[in-house]
Design goal:
globular, alpha+beta, 140 residues, two-stranded parallel sheet
Length: 140
């Protein structure tokens, strides 16, 4: 998968700092007990600067920066929950297989992906995924 990524971040410490250090990971917020939409990791809008600006306006009150870069991810390490029916089925099968252990249908997608990442840490051949593409259906 080869695409242009747009990473929206708060404009703290100035543009030079951001250009030297971006992208920034989104991580589990222990205080709010909130797991990011697709679990911890780096978030990019896939060739969608409009969505990146929308996110910046709503989440950073207009004080944001968009870092643009080329993303090139090996197809076999890319879980596409937007354009690959095969990948959607694969994830559904994993959820069904581990539903008792991970809490079934009550968990968010981020919680499920975090569980699968933990299993990958135990067995590097299991769920060997570097990137997940999904549709953000939130209103903000």
């Amino acid at each position: 998968m080869n695409t242009i990524g747009h990473h929206t971040c708060a404009n703290r410490n100035g543009n030079t700092y951001i250009l030297q250090n971006a992208p920034f990971p989104s991580e589990f917020n222990k205080e709010a007990n909130k797991i990011p939409f697709l679990g911890g990791g780096y978030y990019f809008w896939d060739t969608n600067p409009e969505a990146a600006h929308f996110w910046g306006e709503n989440h950073y009150k207009g004080n944001y920066f968009i870092y643009e870069c080329v993303l090139n991810i090996e197809d076999d390490k890319f879980l596409d929950l937007v354009g690959s029916r095969k990948d959607m089925i694969q994830l559904r099968e994993l959820i069904d297989k581990f539903s008792r252990k991970i809490g079934g249908e009550n968990l968010s997608l981020g919680e499920i992906l975090e569980y699968l990442k933990k299993l990958h840490n135990l067995d590097p051949n299991f769920f060997d995924v570097d990137a997940v593409r999904a549709i953000d259906s939130s209103k903000s």
